[in-house]
Amino acid sequence: MATIKARPFDFTLNPAETALIVIDMQRDFVEPGGFGATLGNDVSLLQAIIPATAQLIAGFRKAGLPVIHTRECHAADLSDCPPAKRERGNPALRIGDPGPMGRILIAGEDGADIVPELYPVAGETVIDKPGKGAFYATPLGEILKEKGIRQLVFAGVTTEVCVQTTMREANDRGYECLLATDATESYFPDFKKAAIDMMTAQGAIVGWAATVDQIVEALD
Ligand code: C5J
């Protein structure tokens, strides 16, 4: 057991029951020409967290703890993409349209894959998810149960969309959730701050927050 001086109060980390979930660090969100950029976002903001996220992943790998990666993507025939999701807004390219990194947010295309710096190694679980939350329509819950996991450390993008949705799903399922504040980012810095404030408020109503250095130190 290790105590992390987290927000809003100490988080007692039990490494034997802990996994890292890295949410959607995909080229489609982080690199020019992908889904994030087609929505008009500045993707360079998200690129900035790659080194801290790599440090966090390295800490989990060194400690021999599970690292789980997620990818938001859809089947090639779009059978798992609700029309309401594809048709929303006025993006330059919609989900499934051909872009510079292949079809936007389609499984198996270059853009839907994880950025090379954070690429999964053999034995790590990769969850393809059609929704914002990683528990919806995926085997994540069963995988965590099988591994005896009770605590989840979160990293990835974007803080207020897929990270927050998954943390809320996990919290409702009884997991203790800790967000790595410098290994998560939003296209909107104010939204990142608000999401962390909301989740840690009211006595960690959704979860705790701490830095990558604090978390990695607790794993040693
Ligand atoms: C979004 C995500 N923002 N991974 N996806 O559409 O947060």
UniProtKB/TrEMBL annotation:
<dbReference type="GO" id="GO:0016787">
    <property type="term" value="F:hydrolase activity"/>
</dbReference>
<feature type="domain" description="Isochorismatase-like">
    <location>
        <begin position="18"/>
        <end position="206"/>
    </location>
</feature>
<dbReference type="Pfam" id="PF00857">
    <property type="entry name" value="Isochorismatase"/>
</dbReference>
<dbReference type="InterPro" id="IPR000868">
    <property type="entry name" value="Isochorismatase-like_dom"/>
</dbReference>
<dbReference type="InterPro" id="IPR050272">
    <property type="entry name" value="Isochorismatase-like_hydrls"/>
</dbReference>
<dbReference type="InterPro" id="IPR036380">
    <property type="entry name" value="Isochorismatase-like_sf"/>
</dbReference>
<protein>
    <submittedName>
        <fullName>Nicotinamidase-related amidase</fullName>
    </submittedName>
</protein>
<keyword id="KW-0378">Hydrolase</keyword>
